[in-house]
């Protein structure tokens, strides 16, 4: 099945943006000029521009036209067990290393585990969990989202039941869990990509249908998983760097 005409035009304009023919801040040709260049009506040209807006390549200004979106510099998020085990917030450490003021807002509530969350936490579907939703910021701009789940059977009635409230607020998962005798020994991360939900796009200031990286992270003690999270990262703003320890003399 052939692609719609407006999408073929959008593909060509996107190619020009990616290859630098149109640079960040440049004004795209008007709908009239696009209509003449591609031999289509103004409505089709407008649909092509709308497609680029939805995918985050272009912004429109009322009465002025469409402009190539300025891309922020790509920052690095370091995924490192060494950093996790040192205590404190790995995200804040990453931001500080790049001279960015890192922070976050959060909201926690008791919820029940979905089938997927239950499998990741090795609990039964419907068991109670503490769900915490985060918006991480760099210099007060939203840069990353996360939703975490912790089994209430472990944390209920303890000083860490609310991840961002109490004497251990703002600490990393490894440090918090150690408070209640849960010594985390390893973590797994599965990285995939998908289309952002409408809510994610709004929170991160992305175009609709933008692609995001999804990190499914789970922390384990020697006996069981104790926390799992979905982390949403815009790939045009951040790259992931993994530091993998290697033991040259295994026992």
UniProtKB/TrEMBL annotation:
SMART domains linked to this entry: HTH_GNTR, UTRA
Keyword Transcription: yes
GO BP term, example: negative regulation of DNA-templated transcription
Domain of life: Bacteria
Annotated SUPFAM superfamilies: Chorismate lyase-like, Winged helix' DNA-binding domain
Single Gene Ontology MF annotation: DNA binding
UniProt cross-references to Gene3D superfamilies, sorted A to Z: Chorismate lyase-like (3.40.1410.10), Winged helix-like DNA-binding domain superfamily/Winged helix DNA-binding domain (1.10.10.10)
Residue ranges occupied by any HTH gntR-type domain in the UniProt entry: 3-71
PANTHER family: GNTR-FAMILY TRANSCRIPTIONAL REGULATOR (PTHR44846:SF17), MANNOSYL-D-GLYCERATE TRANSPORT/METABOLISM SYSTEM REPRESSOR MNGR-RELATED (PTHR44846)
Descriptive protein name: HTH gntR-type domain-containing protein
Lineage: Bacteria, Bacillati, Actinomycetota, Actinomycetes, Streptosporangiales
């Amino acid at each position: 099945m052939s692609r719609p005409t407006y999408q073929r035009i959008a593909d060509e304009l996107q190619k020009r943006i990616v290859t630098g023919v149109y640079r960040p801040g440049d004004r795209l040709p008007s709908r009239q000029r696009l209509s003449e260049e591609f031999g289509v009506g103004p409505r089709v040209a407008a649909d092509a521009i709308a497609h680029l807006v939805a995918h985050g390549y272009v912004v429109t200004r009322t009465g002025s036209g469409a402009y190539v979106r300025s891309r922020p510099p790509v920052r690095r998020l370091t995924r490192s067990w060494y950093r996790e085990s040192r205590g404190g917030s790995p995200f804040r450490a990453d931001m500080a290393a790049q001279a960015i003021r890192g922070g976050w807002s959060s909201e926690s509530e008791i919820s029940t585990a979905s089938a997927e969350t239950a499998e990741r936490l090795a609990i039964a579907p419907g068991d109670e969990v503490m769900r915490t939703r985060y918006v991480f910021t760099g210099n007060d701009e939203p840069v990353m989202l996360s939703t975490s789940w912790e089994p209430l059977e472990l944390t209920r009635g303890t000083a860490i039941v609310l991840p961002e409230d109490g004497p251990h607020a703002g600490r990393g998962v490894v440090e918090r869990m150690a408070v209640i005798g849960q010594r985390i020994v390893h973590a797994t991360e599965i990285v995939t990509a998908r289309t952002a939900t409408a809510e994610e796009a709004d929170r991160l200031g992305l175009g609709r249908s933008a692609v995001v990286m999804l990190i499914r992270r789970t922390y384990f003690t020697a006996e069981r998983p104790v926390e799992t999270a979905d982390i949403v990262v815009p790939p045009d703003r951040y790259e992931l760097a993994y530091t993998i320890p290697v033991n040259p003399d295994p026992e």
